[in-house]
Amino acid sequence: MTKEEIRNTLSGGDRRSVGDAHLIAECLLQKPELARSVVSLIQEDDAIVRSRAAHALKTATLSKPAITQPYKSEFIQNMSPIQQWEVREQFCIIITKLTLDSDDYTKWLNIFKDYLSDKSSIVRTCAMQGMSDLAEKSDSIKAEVLPVLIELTETGSAAMRARGRKLLKKLI
């Protein structure tokens, strides 16, 4: 499958639908070498293609994290600044499934903290989950994450408060 074929499969419709992203995720599981093309589509001008490419990567990563592992540096440098909420939501999940070193934990923790000021409550809630998932894997950042989660559990949106209660039960 070429990059153009992947783009065509992911395009069309509206952003409220993941379209055929599951088909691309299945292709990634069969042919991990296609990940380079899907990763590059996250930087497309088309918001629908970006969203669905991120969804396909997330779906494949949940089954086989090795597919996206080679791109973790690229995610930090090129993908994390993307403002689209659908992409940010997926990155909050993808990153926590990868093997990270101590520098990566710090970088992603800071990115997730930035996501906490996103206008989308979905992104803010997913960032909380991402921070918690990182803290579960790295004791070095747990002390930094706990006060943030406690504050957001008291002051965040209803979804953030509910998620925060669950996350704090696991971390404390």
Number of domains: 2
Structure class: mainly alpha
Biggest sheet: strands, sense, closure?
none
What is the 3D form? globular
Number of helices: 10
Distance between the termini: 46 Å
Helices and strands, in N-to-C order?
Answer: HHHHHHHHHH
Mean pLDDT: 93
Number of strands: 0
Content of β-strand: under 5%
What is the percent of helical residues?
A: over 70%
Uncertain runs are none
Rg to the nearest angstrom?
Answer: 16 Å
Features:
mainly alpha; globular; single chain; 172 residues
Provide a descriptive summary of the structure in words.
The protein has 172 residues and is an all-alpha fold. The chain has 2 domains: 1-82; 100-172, no CATH class. Helices cover 71% and strands 0% of the residues. The protein is globular. 39% of the residues are buried.
Layout of helices and strands:
Layout: H1 3-10, H2 21-30, H3 35-41, H4 47-63, H5 72-79, H6 85-94, H7 102-115, H8 121-137, H9 139-155, H10 158-171
Helix pairs in contact: 2-4, 3-4, 4-6, 6-8, 7-8, 8-9, 8-10, 9-10
Summarize this entry quickly.
The protein contains 10 helices and no strands.
